[in-house]
Design goal:
four-stranded antiparallel β-sheet, 499 residues, globular, mainly beta, Neuraminidase, 1 helix
């Protein structure tokens, strides 16, 4: 199936007819030797010439076909083809490879990203809807970065759980195309709970899920936060995060839901699992499902002494929610990078089932750097990766990684943000060879920094498209207290996907 909405015209040109010029946005100029004719293609975002073929992309592709059908431009003969995704078509992303989206408020921040089977991009986070009110905010984009008008209102959806602070931190796409977003909702005083919403493909809430498309889950404490979500092969929904279990005690928290949003009683206790690493602060931020359907959850654990002694923490669970004792020690793995603060915020599974964990590590003074670790299937560090299974990457004074993805060629892409001076933060992306060395063919020495022209640009999740392009989502500071969703797309060589 064609992953992106292209229409390809095979054009039989007269001997004196050539494509002379490609104009930006909505027009293409066809130049004949005798006269010049302009064809206005409303809302057609880009066209590309390849020999005698013209590829048109955009929501008005059917309108373009109609223009040709009625013979208005009878110099063209054509046939509609299915675009071969193996044939590169240069369709750039947004403006200079970047997209900024404002929900009409002063604080819109995106943290999570998913790509649909048709190539459309879904970003999720929060939007400020008035006073102290924040709601789930989702936006869907066409392949070229334009907002998809068939989703919500003008490509955007906001969801209120009836409280004054609702924030989406994870998003995924079901096999049927429905969208699941997870995060937290403030349910009173200092109380927050897991919040899950499911959307139909048009952005409307799926009323077959929970109550009116929404589910709130309380672990019985005063603070529960969902940070990541994934879908099992049987379409059950698994959500990871953390729960406050007393005083300063936080533990990993996982919940599994049936397709109707009810808790799955075959998982853990009543659909919920809490995991304590034996310390007073264990927080989970990532979840992946292995080929054998076991779940790996990762975050960090306080190994004694508060903020100054955090280490990366992973746990693996059997399908019933019990800890998999064949992984690490009793189902748990703790990794110290030799510093006082090590975290994991993202996970990816390689084709060989090795586990890549990505976050950041404190390397001295006020210095934080990207920190990656790779594990064998039994939870031991993979010593063929980096130094003893670990890689640290420095962009500058402070670097924080929040996303990781594996390419088809097994190269590893990590995303986050880097401090570039003063109050300036920019998107930061790095690519590694499978052995953990920097890929020198990517951008400059394996690393790329992207500035949206403001003093605070923060990158979070990264995803690899079917065509190998790399998409990173986050937010950008656009003035005063104004933040907007921000996305950047990179070509496989690390350059921004621009004209």
């Amino acid at each position: 199936m064609n992953p992106y909405p292209f229409i390809e015209f095979t054009v039989q040109f007269p001997i004196d007819f050539t494509v002379q010029e490609l104009l930006p946005q909505d027009q293409i100029a066809f130049q004949k030797s005798i006269r010049s004719t302009f064809l206005p293609f409303s809302n057609t975002n880009f066209i590309a010439q390849n020999g005698n073929k013209i590829v048109l992309y955009g929501k008005e592709a059917t309108h373009i076909k109609k223009l040709v059908d009625i013979g208005f431009y009878n110099m063209l003969t054509y046939r509609i083809l299915q675009h071969d995704p193996a044939v590169p078509v240069n369709i750039p992303f947004g403006i200079d490879g970047k997209v900024v989206t404002n929900f009409g408020t002063d604080n819109d921040q995106a943290f999570a990203l998913a790509i649909q089977a048709d190539g459309k991009i879904v970003a999720a986070g929060h939007t400020h809807t008035g006073n102290t009110q924040y709601d789930f905010g989702l936006a869907r984009y066409n392949y070229d970065g334009s907002l998809d008008a068939t989703f919500g209102i003008g490509g955007k959806v906001t969801t209120d759980f009836g409280t004054n602070f609702d924030e989406a931190l994870g998003v995924t796409i079901q096999a049927d195309g429905k969208i699941v977003a997870v995060g937290r909702t403030h349910t009173g005083n200092v109380q927050s709970d897991f919040a899950i919403a499911r959307y139909n493909t048009d952005g409307s809430l799926d009323t077959t899920f929970g109550t009116g498309g929404k589910v709130i889950t309380d672990f019985g404490t005063n603070f529960d936060e969902a940070t990541a979500v994934t879908i099992q092969i049987d379409n059950k929904i698994v959500v990871a995060g953390f729960t406050h279990t007393g005083n300063t005690q936080y533990n990993f928290a996982i919940a599994r839901y049936n397709t109707n949003g009810s808790l799955d009683a075959t998982f853990g206790t009543g659909g919920k699992v809490i995991t304590d690493f034996g310390t007073d602060d264990d927080e989970a931020y990532a979840i992946v499902i292995q080929k054998d359907n076991k779940m790996v959850v990762a975050g960090f654990t306080d190994t004694g002494g508060g903020f100054s002694s955090y280490d990366s923490a992973l746990a693996r669970y059997n399908t019933d929610g019990s800890l998999d004792t064949s992984f690490g020690v009793g189902g748990k793995v703790i990794t110290d990078f030799g510093t006082i603060y090590d975290t994991t915020f993202a996970l990816a599974i390689q084709k060989d089932n090795k586990i890549v964990a990505c976050g950041y590590t404190f390397t001295g003074n006020t210095q934080f750097d990207f920190g990656l670790a790779r594990y064998n299937t039994d939870g031991s560090l993979d010593t063929s990766f980096g130094v003893g299974g670990k890689v640290i990457t420095d962009f500058g004074p402070d670097d924080f990684a929040f996303g990781v993805a594996i390419q088809k060629d097994n190269k590893i892409v990590a995303s986050g943000l880097t401090h570039t001076g003063g109050t300036q933060y920019d998107f930061a992306v790095v690519r590694y060879h499978p052995n953990g060395t920097l890929d020198q063919t990517f951008a400059s020495g394996g690393k790329v920094i992207t500035d949206f022209g403001t003093n605070d640009d923060e990158g979070y999740q990264v995803i690899i498209q079917l065509d190998g392009k790399i998409v990173v989502v986050g937010f950008t500071h656009t003035g005063n207290t104004q933040y907007d969703f921000a996305l950047a797309r990179y070509l496989p060589n690390g350059t921004l996907d621009a004209y």
